[in-house]
Structure formats: structure tokens, C-alpha cells
Design brief:
Residues 86-211 form the Nudix hydrolase domain. By secondary structure, this protein is of the alpha/beta class. Helices cover 22% and strands 30% of the residues. Strands 3, 4, 5, 6, 7, 8 and 10 form a seven-stranded mixed beta sheet that branches. The protein has a two-stranded parallel ribbon with strand order 1-11.
Length: 240
Amino acid sequence: MKKEKKLMPDNSDQQTAMNRQGWPKNSLPPPNATKSKSESFTLNRTVNLYPLSNYTFGTKEPLFEKDPSVPARFQRMRDEFEKLGMRRSVEGVLLVHEHGLPHVLLLQLGTTFFKLPGGELNAGEDEVEGMKRHLTETLGRQDGVANEWIVEDTLGNWWRPNFEPPQYPYVPPHITKPKEHKKLFLVQLPEKALFAVPKNYKLVAAPLFELYDNSQGYGPIISSLPQALCRSEMEESYDG
């Protein structure tokens, strides 16, 4: 066939562009050439989801924000940027299932504000350790028994280019010094657990279909979670 002839050795001194492309002739095959065609090279992470009813929710003392207002928060960010550089923060994505559907646990403040558990990292603090610290401070039980936080994977990276609310899943090309880097982590919950929720928050379980493309209700980060999670295989476990 014509296509096969182009792959045969050419005795002439001049080679065509097609002859020069591809894996070199008379050399070892590519490293994966002997792999079975049935072997999958896709890394398919499985996330275990347990029923919402498996978890018990108590209460604890209120957990207040560091800043009394949004302008105060950005002023503190500006002051700290001059001394410490870019702020690093982390947020955790905790999943359960209800009525056969994946749900994300969100902290609700008031009637319209929702957030993921997390917060700012200390200077030099490890990201995973900082994520566990924030989970303990926000949802950790108060009876002296430590919660088991398993930080499984990174779900996304978001950047704040200026001292303003907008954040993006990339660094805009004209920005050389982002003001904040926020990393989202997937946290694997144990089969059963007790959580203590600050009194000024409600812990709600929001289904993925409600979050999808709903930045008006949940903001750009939370509303993008269905896309971030779709690369994982979700395995629902039931009692019994």
C-alpha cells in the first residue's frame, strides 16, 4: 500500500519529511510498544462515598472570621503581602451521598453565603498539614478524640491576581505577582464520624447537580466542583 511504502527504507540520499518523522528506523521500539493493548494507562482514582446518615453533627463555640468586613480583609491582605508575599490558602472538599447522589459538605453562614472548610496557611506551613489543621479547627470534635483526615488529592488551583474578590483557575498573563494562591484538596471521609460544627455556621450537604454551573448561588469555585470531580470514580457504600 502507498502508506506502507513510505515507511520502508529509502535507498536514495534524499529523504522526505515523512521519512524523517516518527520513531527512528532500525532502532529499539518505543518503551510501550510491547504493552498489551488491553492494558489501561488511565489513572482512575476511586473516591468512597458513605451515606450522610453515617455522620453525627454536634456543635461547638462560634468560629469567627479574622476580618470584620470584606474591605478589612483585603486591607490585611495588602499589608501582609508587603511583608510575607503571596497568601497561601487551602480548602477541603468532603463528599457524602444522599438518595444515591454525591453531595458536597458546605459551611453556610446566613442565608446566602456558602464556603468550603479551610483557610490561610501560616508562613512555611505544609499544605496538607495546614489542611488538616483547618479541618480540625472547623469541624473537629471536642471530646478529645482526634478526627481522621485523609487528604487524597489536589482538585484545583485558584489564583487571586489583585486585592479584589475575583479569583481564576489560572494566572492571567499580565499578572507577575498574584496576591493569593488557593489549593483545593479532596478529603476522604471515614465510614463514620462525629463532627462539631461552630454555632454560627450550618453544615449543609449540597448535591453536585445543584452546584453545577451555579456560580450565582455558590461562587465560581464551588460551582466548578462537579467538573473537578468528574475525573474520579465515585463508589457509594451502604450499611448492611
